[in-house]
Request: fold
Amino acid sequence: MNAPVQHSILVIEDDSVLNRLLLKTLVRSGFDMHGALTWAEARARIDEIAPDLVLLDMNLPDARDFTPLTEIVQTRPVIMLTAYGSINQAVEAMRLGAVDYLVKPVNLEELELVIQRALEGTRLRRTGDALKAARKGLTDNPMVGASPAMRQVWDLIEAVADDEVTVLVRGESGAGKELVARAIHDAGRRRDGHYVAVDCCTLQETLFETELFGHERGAFTGADRLKPGLIEAAAEGTLFLDEIGDIGPAIQAKLLRVLETGRFRRVGATTDLRANVRIVAATNRDLTQMVREGRFRADLYYRLTAFEINVPPLRDRREDIPRLVAHFARARARNGRLVGFSDAALARLVTYDWPGNVRELRNVVERALILASHTGLAGPEHLPPLRDPGFDPQTPVACGPVSFHGEPTLDEIERHYLTELLDRHQGNRRKVAEAMGVSERTAYRMLERHGLKSRGEGA
Ligand SMILES: Nc1ncnc2c1ncn2[C@@H]1O[C@H](COP(=O)(O)OP(=O)(O)OP(=O)(O)O)[C@@H](O)[C@H]1O
Ligand SMILES: [Mg+2]
Reply:
């Protein structure tokens, strides 16, 4: 274990109440905290404080543009504090190099997660071991998400990473199961070992066995030499079995044996070998149903489901959409021009239901970035027709059945979105909260702010 380091953070925020609240909260979490109310003050002190991280308000009285951001990002990571209703500026800020953003009023749980992730990123870069960082996949392909729903996922990853228990990652297609599997490996004790991913659906049953367990010399015609299998290739590391629902009965039986005894046998061998791997499996199938239908062994099912992580669909964590958009835009900007998203385009992305989850969002965003590269701003016209109920492709600035006048603010989008959810769930607050991936209390507060009526469970 490393000795704990005390990180220093500078909060540049002219709202003195918020500034003080952030200082107090973060001091309690063990950070060395400093505050500045203006850009002038921050600028004068930044070298003296040498903060590891800066929380920066978007609208300072003496700097209402991106000057402070572009200046600070040269030397240290910045998290933007953005006003409610200017999420687009936050996306812009991320393109300019901010590591993340927080929307006011700041959710304190989210605050900690965002800070923790930002500091982790710099720790890797500081070690200077770019190769290691790249292999860990954290700098190039970090899993983005600070919504309450994703926070739960992070907590589970951290809780289970250092353990050896088999993990089953469940979730819809494109939700990010593979990234979760990778994150478990990267966060755990086996991080320096290999991470070997096996796509179970592409391998035939007979091939699968020799691929997974290897074979002895002479095990079958053509086996002219011993070949270790993927289990051995992943020794001391992690074996990721993707699409586990697709494996046939023979492999199911053999896999169960590995999980139960920790041993396996190469094809054609007479003795067992010890499997020194941690197994993470993933599926987007309904394994429970498959067990019921006799297509998946119940005993294997129970082994696998001892520790499950459910990756929520993107529509249940819409708060992460602007964050993801910024992330994909920035990844592309490395080798081209920076492209932003108009409010209307972003509004459309936030309100769509994303049946293909993050993968679909990524494709849509990347397409828009290409189409808009000459103007530098992606609008609704650069999005493909995202058809969900009520969407009218004739009016590009439409979100569902309602058109906004001009470019809608986040406030208007939220109100509209809430109204739709209330409609869909007959005013049931718990269901609305679930759909948004927030607590019922948060939903209640949002609804109140918009003067919308909902009903609790008993009502
Ligand atoms: N939280 C995230 N942050 C950044 N990128 C993400 C995130 N989740 C998913 N992606 C991206 O979306 C795409 C799909 O993710 P992934 O392959 O992990 O999904 P999956 O759940 O394994 O899907 P499938 O069931 O189809 O295999 C990938 O390009 C991945 O990088
Ligand atoms: Mg996958």
Q: What stands out?
A: Residues 177-178, 242, 282 surround magnesium ion (ligand 2) (CB under 6 Å).
